[in-house]
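Ticket #4471: structure output looks truncated?

Reporter: J.K.
Steps to reproduce: submitted the chain below (221 residues) through the standard prediction queue, then opened the result file.
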Amino acid sequence: MFETFTPALLELFGRSLWETLVMVGISGLLGGLLGIPLGVYLRLSDRGGVLRNAAANRIVGGVVNAVRSTPFIILLVAIIPLTRLLAGSSIGTAAAVVPLTAAAAPFIARLVEASLREVDAGLIEAAQAMGATTSQIVFKVLLPEALPGIVAGLTITLVSLTGYSAMAGAIGGGGLGDLGIRYGYQRFLPEVMLAVVVVLIAFVQAVQSAGDWAVRRLTRK
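Returned output as attached by the reporter:
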């Protein structure tokens, strides 16, 4: 078994792990930058929100639900023209970031919206009574109060993106998924596939543990 892991394969394994980290990290960051404001708007424009707008909320929510409910493998193929436009190619690690971000943003938006719904309405009413603006309500009341839930949602998203990145690797996205398919499956090396699975499990465990620790720290505050 150990003879399989030649220096060249170990080097490839390290490069594939780095590609997975890049895909998950960048798409998680971009997904958060898009998804958090989107989630805030969905909450503000919803019933009981300070910017209530039923029509806009329905439209934005419909788009979010449409993207979120699309299986990732279909989304991956459906937005290939956009991927080529933004990344210059439809294969490779950089290209995989585009569909991963597209999958992450609406997922984060709904998790953020759900966290904001848990904020005590009395706090918002008190802020409005003191003349707080919408931006002050968002940045001084809603986001600080919902921060532990938002961090927990981001952790869940990163874990999901890890699985999505492996799926992206199966069609040329690089990373551990690509390594597992090309060597573990196509070249009949089950020990490589097992190693890929073990590393992915360890990575997900590390992400989840870090997220849980951050949530505990924020909750105590």
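Triage note (M.O.): checked the attachment and the full token line is present. The chain has nine helices and no strands.
Status: closed, working as intended.
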